[in-house]
Amino acid sequence: MMPSTEARVLPSASRPPRFDAASRGAPDEADAVHAILHGSNMDRARVALGALARLVRDPNDTAQIFVLAVALDRDHVPAALTRFLCEPGGLDLMRDMPVLDSSTLDFGALSRCAVGTLGHAYAKHVLDGALDPDIFQAPPGLPPAIAYFAQRFRQSHDIWHVLTGYAPDVPGEILLQAFTHGQLGTPAPRLAAVVGCMQWVRSYPSLPRAAYAAYRRGKEARFLLSMRWEDHWEEPLEALRVRLRLAEEAS
Q1: Which residues contact 211 (CB under 8 A, 6 or more apart)?
Q2: Long-range contact set of residues 217-223: C-beta below 8 Å, sequence gap at least 24
């Protein structure tokens, strides 16, 4: 028996306020979370388009990638989270909820790992690029399991750069988005990669072909998100790439 219309409509006193992107200026993650929890498909589309427009103007605006993902990937999170939990190591990560930020990482110690190891390469990547590991936090207002899943994915971003060999520049970020779509199958990285290729193809004519290769590489590699990287800092990077089916050279 179908529930009545009245049962599905919140009383006005408890109904969430209507999302109004136009009155808020640039959308942030709180806007995106509000849209997916309480808004309409049109609200989600407005948030996503606003984030995409800002990302086109500034490909290094990492915050807009987060907003885009929250707005677009809602319906795909259950499948991705299920795979995360079913892959070896995923349940242990969800139980322990370790984080990869300045509260747990000692980049001085990691830089003293042997040259050629994951730890040394990751520390060099972060320190040479003056990157801030603390920008990768959980989206606000989501259930704990989903919030941790998103946080772990974000905090693995620069480790994926190191593993894949994609540089932290415009073409490298686009390739990593294509690779991420191959790994997770979610729409936000696919859209970011497609729009990025369209925007930058004149400057980098081989970018669309390289992005498709990155997508295929992501599909063929082992599932990276359930890896506990903290246990592999001293492992040789090339051996790790072979084990994860990432041995081919980055395009």
Answers
A1: 174, 175, 178, 193, 196, 197
A2: 217/164, 217/179, 217/182, 217/246, 217/248, 218/178, 218/179, 218/180, 218/181, 218/182, 218/183, 219/182, 219/183, 220/182, 220/245, 221/182, 221/183, 221/245, 221/246, 223/83, 223/84, 223/87, 223/183
pTM for this predicted structure: 0.82
Q: What's the gap between Cα 41 and its chain centre?
A: 22
Q: Answer yes or no: are the C-beta atoms of 52 and 199 closer than 8 Å.
A: no
The neighbouring-strand residues paired with 236 are 117
Instruction: Give which of 44, 54, 53, 48 is closest to 68, Cα–Cα.
Output: 48
Tokens of 199: 């925007």
Q: Is the pLDDT of residue 198 over 60?
A: yes
What is the predicted pLDDT for the residue at 40?
Answer: 82
